[in-house]
Write a structure and sequence with these properties.
The chain is of the alpha/beta class. 37% of the residues lie in helices and 21% in strands.
Length: 386
């Protein structure tokens, strides 16, 4: 069955800045330890060339959000961030309401840098706290301590960042329920508009995978999750995604675009893209080479791979993302974003309803409470299409 896209699809821009002060033992992201001489100017030059090469595929489309991820983007100077945003805006106009997020490590910022980031055009920060307890931060290999983290939040607020996210983990090595709730309570006391609160998982190709720490039992993990949700709700932050909580109208627009299967262009080492071509009626994924050395080598190609998604892959990826949202998505969004009629998943949808994993609603694709708890089981039902 051929796709038929009729409605415009939102488009975001992701910019990957791949360096960190040091690699954390739990991290499986495309991040690399920064040496004494960060190649900031050269990398920015290549980012702009990367953008120019990709612009023809998205020409004329409105940009809804920009996200600087990493790595540790706050290692870059505000001057570099401003240049990137200026170069984007000269080639690709965006409105005054665009969300521009920058990830920051509390151990790599000072008061002047946050103010400069704000003046450069960044209007949302995501602070990678992970914890506010020094023993847990040490176990996670973080370069900051509790005081650094709290000071970073204070500096961000003083710099004019009313909209900021706090990244916080739970299920940490030797963490008790009391530890986790105390950590969360301390973070909420700073009045963030958004909290990403997620469980530590041991990923392949990480130090924790080769040298596993002692993690809490399943019973403790479950109690942390349930009690934490209550605490977040009491403080006015509602879950809108598996691990994302926000105050009203403070959801992350960039991440929502991912979960609602919008399009995104990624530039930088290892950055991924998903682009819908309305003329060709195709969805294409491509990604750049991962290693910054290769990305900065002018003799090598940036594009690591590119392929057009099959209908089965499109269906699975849509459900993989959309079912993370606690309220799900309108059924009409399925056709808008996949270009396919709802009938192609109707047998699976009805089977999931029968199992109690999807709500019985002809206008909404939404996981039940059971479906949220057993999200992997729900998603696996749609693997038959992939």
């Amino acid at each position: 069955m051929k796709q038929h896209f009729t409605a415009p699809i939102p488009l975001s821009l992701y910019i990957h800045l791949p360096w960190c002060v040091r690699k954390c033992p739990y991290c499986d992201f495309n991040s690399h330890t920064a040496g004494p001489n960060l190649p900031e100017e050269l990398y920015v030059h290549h980012l702009i060339r990367d953008l120019e090469e990709n612009l023809p595929a998205v020409w004329g489309r409105r940009l809804t959000s920009i996200f600087f991820g990493g790595g540790t983007p706050s290692l870059f100077s505000a001057r570099a961030i401003e240049r990137i945003l200026t170069e984007i805006n000269t080639r690709w106009r965006f409105g005054p309401d665009i969300e521009i997020t920058l990830e920051a490590n509390p151990g790599t910022v000072d008061e002047s840098r946050f103010k400069d980031f704000r003046q450069a055009g960044v209007n949302r920060l995501s602070l990678g706290l992970q914890s506010l307890q020094d023993d847990k931060l040490k176990a996670l290999g973080r370069i900051h301590d509790r005081d650094h983290a709290l000071r970073a939040i204070e500096i961000a607020q003083q710099a004019g960042f009313e909209n900021f996210n706090l990244d916080l983990m739970h299920g940490l090595p030797n963490q008790t329920v009391s530890d986790a709730l105390s950590d969360l309570r301390d973070a909420l006391a700073t009045k963030p508009k958004h909290v990403s609160w997620y469980q530590l998982t041991i990923e392949p190709n990480t130090l924790f995978h080769h040298q596993p720490p002692t993690l809490p039992s399943e019973e403790v993990l479950w109690e942390i999750q349930e009690q934490g949700k209550i605490l977040l709700a009491e403080q006015g932050l509602q879950a809108y995604e598996v691990s994302a909580y926000s105050r009203p109208h403070a959801e992350c627009a960039h991440n929502l675009n991912y979960w609602e299967f919008g399009d995104y262009l990624g530039i930088g080492a290892g950055a991924h893209s998903k682009i819908t071509d309305m003329e060709k009626q195709t969805v294409t994924r491509h990604w750049q080479v991962k290693n910054p050395r290769d990305y900065l080598d002018a003799t090598k190609k940036w594009r690591a791979e590119e392929r057009i998604l099959s209908n089965k892959e499109i269906i699975f990826e849509f459900m993989l993302n959309a079912m993370r949202l606690t309220q799900g998505v309108p059924v009409t969004l399925f056709t808008e974003r996949t270009g396919l009629p709802l009938s192609v998943i109707e047998p699976t949808r009805l089977a999931a309803i029968k199992k109690g994993l999807l709500i019985e609603n002809s206008e909404q694709l939404c996981p039940t409470e059971l479906g949220q708890r057993f999200l992997n089981d729900l998603i696996e039902m749609f693997l038959q299409h992939a």
